[in-house]
Design brief:
alpha/beta, single chain, seven-stranded mixed β-sheet
């Protein structure tokens, strides 16, 4: 199911999230060790013969952090590109461009995931509304299922704030508000054209996710 959260110029908040390697210049993408001290997930390296992924960048005042996860092999590669898909949505919102290449590069063409990403970016762009601050991500899992991998993770918007095109700040929810917590479920499938690339096929993002993320 593809859940959508109502958006308005006064209360826009992005419901999809964020980035990993290949962010390019601009915003900062930081990985943190898990509380249990888990090792960095094994990420499948890109083949030098593959077409390069489109560059992604964040403005200097927008940052995304991801906690390491104990996964390897296909699950690690799927998690990597699920994070890239989430990151691509942030990139599109910052660029105010629903047609920005990264969101489409990490989505199955014509899929619910591609529709979701474009919808989120488009609504922010229509309102002249972007984001500032830091979004954190944690509790990632990646499990094989029906020919693909189901990726889940939590995102916390406590330190994210809105910003209008004119630069006016807009505050969302106060620290401690459960509406800051989001639980992502992303169905990932291997690209038919590139064995190293995993694509988002369906996306579900649940708000107020205190049970999964609190």
């Amino acid at each position: 199911m593809n859940r959508r959260r109502p958006l308005s110029a006064a209360a826009l908040s992005l419901t999809a999230a964020l980035f990993l390697a290949g962010c390019g210049s601009g915003g900062e993408d930081t990985r943190k060790e898990s509380p249990a001290g888990g090792a960095t997930a094994s990420r499948a390296p890109a083949s030098p013969t593959d077409a390069p992924a489109p560059k992604m960048s964040l403005p200097a005042d927008l940052k995304a952090t991801f906690e390491d996860a104990k996964v390897a092999g296909d699950e690690a590669a799927a998690l990597r590109d699920a994070e890239n898909y989430a990151r691509a949505i942030l990139h599109g919102i910052a660029a105010q461009d629903p047609k920005a290449a990264p969101a489409h590069h990490y989505s199955v063409p014509g899929s619910k995931a591609e529709e979701y990403a474009e919808y989120q970016i488009e609504k922010h762009a229509e309102a002249g509304f972007t984001l500032t601050g830091e979004r954190t991500h944690s509790r990632a899992t990646a499990e094989p299922k029906a020919g693909g991998v189901v990726v889940t993770f939590c995102s916390d918007e406590t330190r994210i704030r809105g910003r209008s095109e004119e630069g006016d700040p807009i505050t969302f929810f106060e620290p401690g508000d459960p509406k800051n917590l989001w639980f992502w479920t992303i169905d990932m499938v291997n690209s038919e054209k590139d064995d190293e690339l995993w694509l988002a096929e369906n996306t579900e993002v649940e708000s107020g996710a205190t049970e999964q993320c609190g």
